[in-house]
Predict the 3D structure of the following.
Amino acid sequence: MEIQLNGNDLGFHEIRSILNGEASVRIKDEAWTKIDGSRAVIDSHLKMGKVMYGVNTGFGKLSDTVISASDTEELQLNLIRSHACGIGEPFSKNVSRAMLLLRANALAKGYSGVRRETIQLLVDCINAGLYPIIPSQGSLGASGDLAPLSHLALVLVGEGEAIYKGHKMNGRAALKKAGLQPIRLKAKEGLALINGTQAMTALGTISYLEANDLAHFADAVASLTFESLRGIVDALFPETHAVRPHIEQAEVAASILSYLKGSLLTTKQGELRVQDAYSLRCIPQVHGAIRQVLKYAEEKLLIEINSATDNPLVFTDSGQIISGGNFHGQPIAFAMDFLGIGMAELGSMSERRVERLVNPQLNDLPAFLSPRPGLESGLMIIQYTAASLVSENKTLAHPASVDSIPSSANQEDHVSMGTTAARHAYQIIENSRRILAIEAICAAQAASIRGPEKLAPKTKKLYENIRSIVPEITSDRSLSPDIEAMSLAIKNRNIKV
């Protein structure tokens, strides 16, 4: 399969296909016309000796320093080298590849004044499976993701470090092994490569995709917990949700009911008790609100994925080159903070269900689901692990977007911290996935005690999926490998729900 980029209609399905190695990439034929036109405007203005920010001037506070025509290429290379000061653990392979893809898509819109060769090299790196090593820390999320994108750009000029066929090497060697040639940056091209929001948006996109998968898994595993605790189905009936018409709330209620159809374990109001605790009764309200968060993040990310976010922008029809602020990451910063908060609550709700599964004061199951309570601790401490992750998520969910530190001698006096927000959101998703893995282990153990034959057909299938990864706990054992195996299966979408 081949995905064609024009900067206007790249979606999540296409991104996922490319990152999974199921599709190659090329620039649409009609996009080249706009790309060539924007480059012609740059060249024309250079010939006329016009002063253009970042083309023949310095950067940031140095924007009033005019650069001679003979030094414009050196200016662009110096920009990349000086701005490549990221630190910390590198972004994952998929984030780096997504950054290449999203930068190529943004440049393909034809508002950046870059040459064909530059965009084509981004595409060639994607198709060759070559990706830059990009440190994850160091971006303020305004003036673009300058540090991360500079590390990406270094590889394109034959510097920096990259991974090719599983091996780490310098950029020039990686390009050579892939049969590619480094580019020599022309006027504006260095700035066009790094003045954008592609680090936060790439990580945000991957975060959204994983969060969306996790939200659907949460509905499934909550249904298994609901059964194991003999939950009251009346709270899921559509009448309640129709009078508070949040669409997502009703969707979750219907989803949980579909999982529970045919169960011999669920109860009716007044049969065992009149009401369930909120962690069961309010699943539609909480999970539904989290779906609303996901929809907000989806909307903002799709806009950003298909936007021109560098500066200045080149408008071919009018011949104007306009300095603006599309590189400012505030929309994505807010979306990532919101996503992190939503996913923290998904984990928090899950941990409360774990507590109800293992606490003998809250159910009629053996204490801590242990085969021999007292002699064996069973699933006592697995709840501690979940609680620890919930607590960590609360710290990570503090909004990064409310902070700003001026930079570039106060020229850039308000920044978004959007990349920090995306990094924190992704860590929250990783933590919440492990919390839900813990719930899956506990719910399956409780179902083993209740009798799997009493489960609804859909939850029984989920139970069997869990059991294929985590065997029944018949005696105390270290559960760390089980948690990690379950979490990985959820992440890789190996659990069918």
Notes: Residues 204-222+296-491 form a domain with the Fumarase C; Chain A, domain 2 fold (CATH 1.20.200.10). The chain has 18 helices and nine strands.
